[in-house]
Amino acid sequence: MNVRDNLEALLSLQEIDSALDTAKRKYAALDKGLQVRQEYESAKGVLGSAEQLVKQTEMELKDAQLECKGVVDRHKLEYAKLYSGKVTGSRELQDLQAEVEMLERNSHKLKEKVDDLARQLENQRSRALELRQDATRAGNALRRHLEGFNKIAAILRDEAATLSASRAEAAAKTPSDLLGRYELLRTARGGVAIVMMQEGEVCSGCRMRLSASLKQRVNACTDIVLCENCERIICPQPK
Length: 239
Ligand SMILES: [Zn+2]
Prior knowledge:
mainly alpha, Helix Hairpins, 3-stranded mixed sheet, binds zinc ion
């Protein structure tokens, strides 16, 4: 293989590597959905607390209803006893009267408590319903985002796989010492190791005008020529 063929092989390798770098950059720049996921997690968290509150109020209401029923039942009994004619002692009647009044006051208070809790529960339930809708919306947004992400990521992965296969082929065609030099240069020069000479005298890597002697060497294609400024390999323009 002569120098020109080697340089052309290297140039096609460079094209593939640059395309691979672009695919990698695109993949890295993809929005992985961190924010939509955070929004979903936070919506779920708020919903969880609201549902917990509903459960707690449901239990409190149940307890209050039971307590209220107990007091109402006892009030009924004591009230019936008071007017049954079976209790006759005035002291006893007085005590019974006091107890009936106390039970009446308590049952009144407890009924108010039950009503209060029922109102609270209703509000909490409708709040939880709203929050459930929010969480569903956030979940759908996350699902849509991930679908989109996976689609683009799969395209980029396919692209990279195809490029990697072509790269292996192109690398196999390049002499190993030159390939080694190319890899080192690529690492040192921001991913671009070989560039074309443009307008017959300009390094397309750094836009510097080449000296007359360098130009001549590039065109002669008898050895590997590096740009004096950016130190990249310079390839003559195709004939
Ligand atoms: Zn240069």
